[in-house]
Amino acid sequence: MEAASSDMALNADYGQALALVRAKSVDDVVATMRFAYDHALPVVPQGAMTGINGGANAIDGCILLSVRAMDRVLDIDATNHTVTVEPGIINADLKKTLAEQNLAYPPDPGSMAISSIGGNIATNAGGLCCVKYGVTRDYVREIKVVLPDGTLTRLGRKTAKGVAGLDLCSLFVGSEGTLGVIVEATLEVIALPPEPLTAVATFPTEHEAAATVSAYMATGLRPSLLEFLDGITINLLNNFGDFGLDDSVGAMLIMQSDAPTAASDVERFTEIAEENGALDVAFSDNTADNEALIATRRCVQPANELYARSHGGGQLIEDICIPRSAMPEFFDGLAEIRKETHTTIAVVAHAGDGNTHPSIFYDAKDPQSRAHAEEAFEQILDLGLRLGGTITGEHGIGSVKARWLTKELDEGSRRLHREIKNAVDPLGIANPGKMLGAL
Amino acid sequence: MEAASSDMALNADYGQALALVRAKSVDDVVATMRFAYDHALPVVPQGAMTGINGGANAIDGCILLSVRAMDRVLDIDATNHTVTVEPGIINADLKKTLAEQNLAYPPDPGSMAISSIGGNIATNAGGLCCVKYGVTRDYVREIKVVLPDGTLTRLGRKTAKGVAGLDLCSLFVGSEGTLGVIVEATLEVIALPPEPLTAVATFPTEHEAAATVSAYMATGLRPSLLEFLDGITINLLNNFGDFGLDDSVGAMLIMQSDAPTAASDVERFTEIAEENGALDVAFSDNTADNEALIATRRCVQPANELYARSHGGGQLIEDICIPRSAMPEFFDGLAEIRKETHTTIAVVAHAGDGNTHPSIFYDAKDPQSRAHAEEAFEQILDLGLRLGGTITGEHGIGSVKARWLTKELDEGSRRLHREIKNAVDPLGIANPGKMLGAL
Q1: From edge to edge, which strands make up the β-sheet containing B152-156?
Q2: Which of A319, B144, B200, B291 is exposed most, by the fewest CB atoms within 10 A?
C-alpha cells in the first residue's frame, strides 16, 4: 500500500491510506464507491500513477481505488473511427493495437509509454503532437463514470457530433478524480499519419528560437511537432546519453511535418529560422534517424532526473502555457529569475503551443537551496500569468499547484468550481484536496 | 416585444414577456441579471433569434435579454491566431473581417449569414465544414459570462492549451442560456483555407449514397465538406430556384476537399462512389461554380419552407446524428416511417458526420396531418437513438426537444444535469424550461 501511495511527483506530500482496491470491473468500482459513500470515506482514484503533481497521492484515511487492471480494448470500430477501452490501458499499448489496423490515437504525453488512458483523460493530457492533433479532450467522445455515490452513468455520445444536454463529458475530462471515476471511454481515432519530415535548427540564444516559433506558427502552417530545448537541456541530454548534440548552442528547435506539403513546410521553416538568426538548420527524411531524435527528446526528463540526483535530488517541474508571441519575453523573465534566485533552470517546451516546462533544480538537503527553488517556482508561475498564460498547460493541478489555482481563476470562477464540486460530490469524498482543494 | 418573443422554430410555443432589454455593454447585462436575481425573474438570453428549437422564445413573465447590439470585434491577434468578440456579432460578418487578414473562423452553421457568435456558442453550432474542421466548441478558448446572480466571470484561457481547473468553458458552450449569459468570447482562428475541389455524385437511391459516405470516411481521408441530399430535397430545390439539378435521381452527394491532396482525394471519392453504384460523378475546380453549388445547398431550408407554405405551412426539422455506418439502416427505417405515417419527409445531411436533417411536412390546419407529422417526428427520434445516435447533432434542445432529452440521457446523467443546473442557478431564472426543463 505504501508503494501505491504516491505518484511521480517529486515534491508532493502523501498521507496514510486505509485500503487499496484493485478494481477488475466496473462492478468493483461501483461497490467501492458505494461503500465509501455509505461510510463517508475519501477515495483517491488511481491509474498508472505517472502524474507529477500528486493528483493520485494517498490522503490520510482514504481508499486508494486503482483501475489499472481494467485495461481491455472493448471495441475497435474501424468504419466509424472509434475505439472503446477500459481506463487502465497504457497509452502506448493502445497506440500499438490501433497501428495494426492503420489507426492512430494521437495524444502522446511524455509519459505515453507508462501512463494510462484513464489518467490521460482525468488530466486532459497533452504531448508533443498537440500542436497539430490537439489534446486528449479532443478525442474523448463518451465516457462511463462512477459518481461519488456509486451511480454508473454515461456522458457524451459515440457520434461525431452531438449537443444533447450540457457537455458533462468535457467537464469530467481533466477533473483529476474530483467528480468521479472514469471506468470506460470511447475515443475518436484517425488514420495512421504518414512518416514526418524533420528539421533541426540551432540558435545562439532562446530568443531567436522563440521568435522563429512565433513567426512560423503565424503563417498558419501546422507542424506535427515543434519542440524547443534550451542550451542547459541539451547539455543534460548529452550527459545522460551519448547523443552528440551540439551543446555549444543556446537553443534548439525540432520541427516535424507529416502533411502532404511536408517538403515545402520544412523549407519555409528553414527560411524563417534563418531570417531569425539560426546558426544551422539540418533536415532528415530518414525514419530511423527521426525516431532516434524524438526518442532523444523524450529522454529530457530522465536526463533531468540524472542531473538532479547528482545535485542534491531536488527538481520542480513547471508547465506554463503562454501565447506563443510572449515566449521571447518569457525567456527574458526567466533569465532574471535565475539570477535573482541563484537557481539552475533547464527549459524544454512544446513550443508550437507555447507550453514550456522549466525544471528548477535544487539540493533537497539544503533548506536554503530548496527555498530558492520554491521562490523561482512561484516567480515563474507569476510570470506566466502576467504574460496572459496559464499555470498548467497539460500536467494538471494535483496537490502541488492547488494553491496557485486560486491565483489564476477569478472569484466568480472559483465559486462556480466550488458549487459544481459540491453538487456532484456533496460528501466531498472524490479525491478531496486535489485540484479544487484551495478554492 | 412581440417580435422579439420567438425565434425561428416553426412549432414552439412562446409566452408573454415582461420586458425586453437590449444590452449595449457588459454592464447592461450585469445590471439586468442583478435585477432579475433580486426579483427572482426569469431571463431569456437572446442573440440573433435564428435558433429553430425555441431556445430563445419568451416565457411568461420573463425579461428578454438581447445581446445582439454587442457586436464588436475587440481584438484580432494574427500572431497567436485568436480573435476576441462580443457575442452579438454575426458569424458571416466575423468571417468577412477575418478574411481581410487571411484568417478564418471555420464553424459555418446553415444560419451563418444571420446567426450570432453568442448564439453559435450557446448552442455549440455545427455546419457543413465540421467534417474536417470541427464544431464551435473546438474554437472557443475563453468566454466571459454573467452568472444568474449578476457575477461576471472568465472561463477557459486564451492559450493553445490549458488544464487549470474544471473545463467550465466547455460546460457553458452549448448550455443554451441555462447557466448564464455569454458576453465575450476569444476564439481560435486558422489560416484561410485554399479553394476546394468539388465532386458531385448521384445515386439511384439513398442507400448507395450512404454506403459511399461510410466507405469514403473509413479511408481516413477528411473531406472539407460531404453533404447528402435525397431526391425529394433535390426536387424542392429545383422548384425553389432554377438550379437545373438532375431531379430524377434518388440521392446526391456533394464532396469537397481543400487539402493539398485534393485532386487525389476527389479521385478516390469517385472510385468509391462508382464501386457503390453511383449513376454519375462530376468534378469542378471552378470557384464560381463551386460557390454557386454550395449556395444552392444552403437554399435547402428556404426551399423546404416554400414547399411547406404551399402545403399547409407545417414543417418539423430533425437533427439526428448517428454513426456513419448506420446511415443505410436509417434510410430503411425512414422509408417505413413515411409509409406508416403517410408523411412527406425530405432529407438533407452533413453526411460525413452522420448528421441528418429530415424535414417532415404537414398541413398546420389539419389536426390529423399534424398528428401524423408528430408521430413521424417521434419515430425518427426513436430510430436515431436505436441506431446509437443522438436526438440533436447541432441544433440543440430548446423547448421543442426538452421532453426527448430525458430519453437520451440515463438517470445518473439526468441527475447530474439537475444538480449542476441547481448549483449554478439556484433560483432557476436562467432560461427556465429550456433544454433541461423536463429532466
Answers
A1: B73-77, B82-85, B181-188, B140-146, B152-156
A2: B291
